[in-house]
Amino acid sequence: MDGPSKMPTAARLVAATCLLVIGFLVSSMIMANGEEGKSYGYFPVVNMALGVACGWTVMGKRAGRGWTAAVNNGLTGVASLVFWGLFVQGTYEMVRQAMRNRFEGPFEAILAIFEIGVGFAEQLWASEIILTLVIGAVVSGIMTEIAARRWN
Asked: Which of 95, 101, 57 shows the shortest CA–CA distance to 76?
């Protein structure tokens, strides 16, 4: 049986849903701004799943600590979504390139995860993406706080 820290709560559900939506919106923006004709495969699905995981584990457990903490909670949740998104997508791209023998050795391949992640992070610097992340973070934090207060 899961301990009380892992129990499903309304705050965890709301946080997971909010970050799922942010993951979808930002993924859609990245694909719209990306290369013409590029296949993104499971890119949005992976980012949405990461949104659910970050909302549930990062934001959900920190809900119910006040309004200022709620905004900070939203910013932390979105920052963790961006970090894990860059890491997972960078790792996937590294493996894809490694299958084509693009690296001399394992150390170079591991280093490539971070280089690829930085390259992906550059795509996030579009003003509409930054605005979506910041507004989404604030709204997510507040919605999670409302859920924690209302259903606890």
From this structure: 57
DSSP character string of 52-114: HHHIIIIIGGG-SS-HHHHHHHHHHHHHHHHHHHHHHHHHHHHHHHHTTT--SSHHHHHHHHH
73-130 per-position pLDDT tens digit: 999 999 999 999 999 999 999 998 998 888 888 899 999 999 999 988 998 999 999 9
Q: pLDDT at residue 136 above 90?
A: yes
The set of residues, in sequence order, having a beta carbon less than 8 Å from that of 146 and lying 6+ positions away, is 14
Q: Which two tokens stand for residue 69?
A: 């903490």
- Torsion-angle region of residue 57: left (phi > 0), alpha (psi -120 to 50) or beta? alpha
Backbone dihedral region for residue 126 (phi beyond 0: left; psi -120 to 50: alpha; all else: beta): beta
What's the whole-model pTM score? Answer: 0.90
The DSSP H or E segment spanning 49 is: helix 43-54
